[in-house]
Write a structure and sequence with these properties.
alpha/beta, seven-stranded parallel β-sheet, three-stranded mixed β-sheet, binds 2-amino-3-ketobutyric acid, NAD(P)_epim/dehydratase, NAD(P)-bd_dom_sf, NAD-dependent epimerase/dehydratase family protein
Length: 317
């Protein structure tokens, strides 16, 4: 049997950077090949294996996977919700064609497993706002959400028709300090920490009362590893699992930050991202993830804010 050899596509992104490190700790430094569209010199990567790769170039992807004997792919390259509204064609191409290239190559190379992230964006305005159930991911109203919903069905299709063990999570907004997010609607919940520490104020692009599902990155990384480690026969859901940790509004986050940073001031100037946020649920129900592979979040709002601030640089200013 082949030794596990993992390819992480989009390894320089917000999730990719941390997941690559976690996978290297688990499988060994040289068993995980980081790939991203950037040149190695711009990627700011360490001396461990890195390759410049465009997931849209299927021939290059196939050749790489064959040469490197890749057994698992984590495909994290994506255009997020805010950029997707501005660049709809690019969002569709990267999010759907990039996935199809990866699924096809994974079948050709007889890979063990593929991971691909979906999002809370698969839920549209007609889904229940509170605890949106697993099976009710309907009518997404953003380009990003449409691409993720289509991608989920492609994952299930490849599982059913080709026997490919492809697994997926619907990530909430992810909060982290190691690598910045880019082009998402939930990015405010990361930016706010940096501005709170540097300027003690933040101008939020979402209005007060905008409740969204969120998760701290250590939980998201652990969820990904746990899902990928779960026995295949336990996984009843082959589109993508709802995944949940906490929900909050900008002012709730601001209040929690204000407990650490005196005089922190939050102002609001909503822009086009408000409409995207309004189309998503306040919270989603991850019952199936808890039952099928024992998912349980560890970080709530208080724990997340404390940890973020100690890492972003604040010490009870
Ligand atoms: C975004 O805001 O676009 C992403 C997401 C919720 O998938 N963070």
């Amino acid at each position: 049997m082949n030794k596990t050899k993992i390819l992480v596509i989009g390894a320089c992104g917000q999730i990719g950077a941390e997941l690559t490190e976690a996978l290297r700790q688990k499988y060994g430094r040289y068993q995980v090949l980081a790939a991203d569209i950037r040149d190695k010199s711009q990627a700011g990567v360490d001396n461990y294996p890195y390759v410049k790769l465009d997931v849209m170039n299927k021939a290059q992807l196939l050749m790489l996977c064959r040469e490197e004997n890749i057994t698992q792919v984590y495909l994290l390259a994506a255009v997020l919700s805010a950029t997707g509204e501005q660049e709809p064609a690019l969002a569709w191409q990267l999010n759907v064609d990039g996935l199809l290239n990866t699924l096809d190559v994974a079948v050709k190379c007889e890979m063990e497993k593929v991971f691909w992230p979906s999002s809370i964006a698969v839920f549209g305005p007609d889904a229940p706002k509170q605890h949106s159930p697993q099976a009710n991911a309907s009518s997404p109203s953003t380009v990003y959400g449409i691409s993720k919903a289509a991608g989920e069905y492609w994952c299930r299709y490849y599982h059913e028709k080709h026997g490919l063990d492809v697994r997926s999570l619907r990530y909430p907004g992810l909060i982290s300090y190691k690598s910045p997010p880019g082009g998402g609607t939930t990015d405010y919940a990361v930016d706010i920490f940096h501005k709170a520490v540097s300027d003690q104020r933040y101008l939020c692009f979402l209005k007060p009362g905008t409740m969204l599902p969120m998760m701290y990155m250590p939980d998201a990384i652990r969820a990904t590893l746990e899902l990928m480690n779960a026995p295949s026969e336990k996984l009843r859901i082959r589109t993508s699992y709802n995944l949940s940790a906490m929900s909050f509004t900008p002012e709730e986050l601001g209040q929690e930050i204000g407990k650490h940073i005196k005089d922190f001031k939050l102002d609001y100037l909503p822009d086009f991202r408000q409409q995207i946020a309004d189309s998503w649920p306040d919270s989603i129900d991850d019952y199936d993830a808890r039952v099928d592979w024992a998912w349980q979040a560890e970080f709530g709002l208080r724990e997340m804010v404390g940890d973020m601030l100690s890492n972003v640089g604040s010490k009870d200013l």
